[in-house]
Amino acid sequence: MHGVPTAQRGIPHEGKYISLNYVRVLLDHLRERQINVAPVMRAMGLSDSDLLDPDVYIDPALLPIAFEAAEALSGDGHIGLHAGQTMKSAHLGALGHLLLSCTCTQDLFDLHTRYSALIGNTTRCEYLDYGHETVMVVYHRHPVVAGRQFTEFNLAGWLTLARWLAGEHFIPTLVELNFTQPADNTGFAAFARCPVQYDAPQVRVHFDRHIFSARFAHAVAGLRSLLEAELNRRLPPASDDVPPLLHDIHQRLGRTLHRGSPSLTALAQDMNLSARRLQRMLDAHQTSFRELTDAVRQRLALAYVADPKLSLVEVSVMVGYTEQSTFQRAFKRWTGYTPGEYRAQRIGERALMPSGDQAPSTASSRSAMPR
By mean pLDDT, which of 4-8, 119-123, 213-217 is the weakest? Predict the structure, then answer.
């Protein structure tokens, strides 16, 4: 279709994006209903190989095209709502694995806020505590994601996963939607099991405080610590000339980067030191917290980007960047390449290697690359 933006492999350098894995929920739902998805794929400019690539992202402008085509094929005026109810943790990639570590509602809200960039940058959620209730506020960063079909898809998917984790009693007290009430308005209200208010200024989901007493049935004990241990495992072994203090800091930062941007104060508390004391110790080693954090991020990022099983959005979040553009700039500063270019180079090197040879180490591969 002329003028329709196509899918991209790798994070777009600028603008808005959404993971194709997330949109795949809609395609999977159509297939379950024995509906040919080829027309939807063509309308979006996608190929079958795109669906097999965990690192494909699409322009949000493709979303209304996808839902319009799906609605026409299925004859379902609530296709977004019904597709959203089939969402599974596997559709969320690394975030889906992290959801399994949730033991309570607060964990779920925290992960949703912190890791939404794994899915896309078209919306942002914030949880506001008013004492008697907590309200999830959805901020739309692209006009096409504010439409009815995608909004219902988004909320239905999120509530479906939350109920799978917390139980069927995970019910809002009120949902505010930013579009006009459809002629058949029973669908979303029946699913949400609470009053629904239409033509609201923005999407808001209200929860009574009792929701925080829920204990999650599917929580996997120790999963989060295992994920942190995996981050730590991927750090290259410290060389003999690295002082024990700096090696310890590298290990601690490697375990916590995926939680968000680290701070000197948080690191000092983790080490049972005052921030001032830790700063003096770093000064004595002629380094800084910023330099150490940058070094750990670089080591982890090089290892993760070389792993084609991880999407580049996942890599960005795992090394503590909330903005993809910031990660892109940092990676190019480290290597001279964008993450996508670096990954393609490493994959090409492995493909050319004789059977039985091993890939060069991350540290040595950079100097071997042509500029």
Answer: 4-8
For residue 133, the cross-strand partners are 208
Give the Cα-Cα-Cα angle 252, 256, 261 (nearest 5 degrees). Answer: 115
pLDDT digits (tens, 9 = 90+) for 232-247: 444 444 444 567 788 7
C-alpha triplet 233, 235, 238: angle, nearest 5°: 115
Per-residue exposure over 241-256, b if at least 16 CB sit within 10 Å of its own CB, e if not: eeeeebeebbebbbbb
What is the amino acid identity at position 357?
A: D
Residue 288 CB neighbours (<10 A): 13
Instruction: Please give the pLDDT value at position 97.
Output: 74
Contacts (Cβ under 8 Å, ≥6 apart) of 136: 109, 125, 126, 127, 204, 205, 207
The answer to whether 205 touches 151, Cβ cutoff 8 Å, is no
Cα gap 167→322, rounded to integer Å: 30
Q: What is the CA 165 to chain-centroid distance, rounded? A: 18
Domain architecture of the chain: domains with CATH = 8-213 (3.90.1520.10), 223-368 (1.10.10.60)
Residue type at position 364: S
Taking the CB of residue 323, how many other CB atoms lie within 10 A of it? 11
Strands 56-58 and 123-129: unpaired
Residue 350: predicted pLDDT: 58
Q: What is the pLDDT of residues 238-274, one digit of tens each?
A: 444 567 788 778 878 877 787 777 889 989 988 889 9
Euclidean distance between CA atoms 371 and 364, whole angstroms: 15
Cα separation, 291 vs 297, whole angstroms? 10
Coil/strand/helix, residue 34:
coil
**218, 193 in Cβ contact below 8 A?**
no
In total, the chain counts a number of residues equal to: 371
